[in-house]
Give the backbone structure.
Amino acid sequence: MIIRHQYNSASPYESCGYERSPAYPAAGQPVRIHFRAEELCGPYCGAWQLAWAVNGAARPPLRQAEPEGLDDEGRAYFSFLLPALPSFSQVEYCIQASNGVCSDLFEYTVLDPVVLEQPAALRQAGQELRLYFSARQGGYCWSWCLNELGASHTLTLCGAHQPSDVLPGPASLTAGPYTLSPAPGGGALELWCEGRRLLRVPTRLELLVTAEGCVWQARLTLELAGEHLYGTGERYTSPDQAGRQVVFSSFERFTFQGQRSYLPIPLFYTERGVGVLHGGGEEFTAEFESGCEALVRARLEYQCTPGTPAFSDRILLGPPPAVLRQYQALTGQALEPPDWAFGPWISSNRWETAAAVQEQLQQLDRHHIPATVFVLERWSDDTLFDRFEAARHPVSPGSHCFSGGELDFSHNPRWPDPRALCQTLCERGLHLILWQAPILRMPPNGEYPQAQQDMEYAIQQRYCVMLPTGQPFRCPEGWFKGSLLLDFTNPEAVAWWQQKRAYLLKEYHACGFKTDSGELVTDDRALFFGGATGRQLRNTYPLHYEAAYRQLLEKEQVRGVNFTRAGYSGAQKYAIHWTGDQCSCFSEYRAQLAACLSAGLSGVLFMGFDLAGFAGRLPTLELYCRSVSLAAFSALMQFHSEPTQGANNDRSPWNMARCMHAPWLNAYFRHYADLRMQLIPYLAAEAHFCAQNARPLMAHLVLDWPGDPAAQACHTQYMLGRSLLVAPVLEEGALGRTVYLPAGRWRCAFDGAPYPPGFHKLPCGEGEILAFVKCNTPGEPLLRFLRGGGWKSPK
C-alpha cells in the first residue's frame, strides 16, 4: 500500500484529494491533511492515525481520520484536521496505517501575516525611488526605477535600518515623457505620461513571512489605465482577460481548458500603453477587475522564494507592439521556423506501424494532397522514447547510448526497417517529427529490461528529479504514473539524454521533436540540480525541457524545429507551439482561435492547433470544413487525433471522407492544402519579419490599430502577417458573418473586389473563409495569386 500525500494540490484549480490545505498555513489557520490510500488489492479498511509534533514536542496522535470517499479506481481518500497555531510554530507529522505502513515525514512552519501600508521613509537615490517599511521581523525596501523605456519595482528584505547611501531629495522620478511620484495625499504611487495617468499603485502590501522575515507570499494591487487586458499567455476564453481571474501555472488539462493554460506567460498590458512583466517563475494569480474609470485593477498574489527578492517586475510602456518588442528584448529572440514548417502537417496517434505510415503516403499520392511534415507519435518503445519499438539489442548499462547500427529490426513486424522508412519520408520532402516526453517509464511486467537499466542509472546519477527523502520523484497520476521525470536543469543529465537521441537526427533524418507533456512538475517538494524546488520550477521546467531539445538540433546542425504545448516567459526562443488537446466541437474550435490570438499577444509568435479537434467523436463535416479553411490561413496547418481503443477517429481527409460518405472531401482538403503551399513564400517572409520584430504571425487587430476601439475589441479575426486579414466563420450553422475592416484599402483575397473600411455583413459558404488583402503592404504582391482561389462546394 502507498500513502499518497504532498504539500500542495497537483492542480492549482481544484483539490487533488491528497494535499495539505492550506499548503503553507498562516497564524490562525487550521490545517486539513488530505491523503489517499493506494491499495494494490482493493480499498484499505484498517485504521489510521496522524502522529505529530509542535516545536519538537510530541502531541497526542489523532486517531479518527475522516473518510472522504472513493474515486473511480477504488482509491480511498481520508483527512485529518490540525488546529490553528501561532506564527512560526514548527510542525512535523506523518500518517500511519494500522498495518504498519507509514508515510514520509512532512513539516511546515506557520507563517506570519504582515501588512505594510505606511512607508516609514520615502527617498530618492538617482533614478530610484525607495519606500522603506518597518515590520516586526525587520525592514523592507520597495524600490522603483524609471527610464525612457519603462520602470521596474522590487521588494527586498533590508533589515531594520535604512542604507546609508540614501540621500534626501525630491521624491519623484522623471525620464523622457514619464514621471513617477507619490499620489497627492499619499497612499499610492502614480506614473504619468504627458498629462495621462498610466499606472496607480497603492502602497499597501500584504505578506506572509518566515521567522527570518523572508517573504513567502505577497499581495499587491496595480491599477492600469485602459479597458482591455491583453497577454497572460495562451487563454481559451478570450484574448481580453479584463474582468477575469487568471492563474499563471503551466497545467495539463485534457480538452475544455477554460481558464486553464499549458502556456501561461507572466506578461499583461492594456491598449493604453502600460503593462507588467513579472520576473518570478513561481505560480501566481491575478484578478483583473474592469473599473468604471477606464482602468483595469490587477489584484496580484505572488508566491515567493526566501532569500531572493519577493518580486521583481518590469513596467513596460508604449503601445502594444512596443510592449511585445520590449518583452522579446528582455526574454530572448524568437525562433524563426524553417520554410517547410509552413506547409501542411499530417499526424495521428493511430499510425503505429511502418505499414500505417506507408498507407498515409499512398493516400497522399492517390488524392494529390501536398504535405511537408510527417509527425510520428507511436514509434517508440514507450519508455525512453529514443528507439523504434521492439528494437533488438543487447541489454547494456544505462550509460550506453545506442546508434542506429546497433539496433536489429530483422524480425520486427511493426517496424521492419525504420531507417529505410525515414529515408523514404526524407526523399519525398516530408520532414519527420518524432514524439517525446520528459520521462523514463517502466513498461508493465518488466517487458523491456533495458528500461530498468536506464532508470537505475538515472537514479544512481541523480539525473531524475528527486524528493527530500532521497527517493526519486515519480509522476503520481495519469498515463505516466510511476514514471521518473528527467532533471533538465542538470547539464550532465541533459547531455546523456541528448546523446541517446542524436542518432535519430544523424542517421534517421529526423528534423525535430514533438516535445509533449512539459507540465509534470506537480509536487512542491520535488528537488532539482542546484537545489531548486518544484514550487520554483512548476512554470519554468518546460523551458529547460525545450532548451535541451533546441540545443540538440543546434549541436547536430539540423535546421529543424521542435513542436510543443507548454512554456512560460521566453518560450518563443525554443520551439513553435500548438494549443494542446481539444474535442471536435464548435466551442473548442472557437477556443483554439482565442488561444492562438492570446498567445500571440503574449509574445508566442508561431502557434497552431489540431484542426477540427483532437479528441472524442469525429467532427461534423461542417466543423471539419470550417477548421480546414481556418488552418490553411493560420500559423500552422495540421490535423491530428488521439489514441483510441478500437474506434476509428483519424482526422485525415481520406478517413473523414470514408467515414462521412463524402468523397468530395479529399478534393476539398487538397484545395486548401494547395493554397497553403502557395502561401509558403508569403508566410516564410512574414515569419522572418515577425521573429525580428516580436510580432505574432497571427496578430490581433489591436497590434496594427491600437487606437481603434473596434479593433481593440475584435477577437474573432486577425492579421496573418502584415497583409492578409482573416475572418473565419465560428458559429455552427452560420453561412456568413460580420467582418470589421480597419483603416486602409482592402480587396477580397479571392476575387480582388475592393472593400472600404468599416463593418460588412458578408455571406460565407460552409467550405469557404473570408480573407482580405491590405493594399500597399509588403506582402501584397505575394498574395495576388489567391484571386479566383475560393472553394465552391459540390453539394
Observations:
- The chain has four domains: 2-110, 113-331, 342-440+489-689, 723-786.
- The chain has a mean pLDDT of 94.
- The first helix runs from residue 320 to 331.
- The radius of gyration is 28 Å.
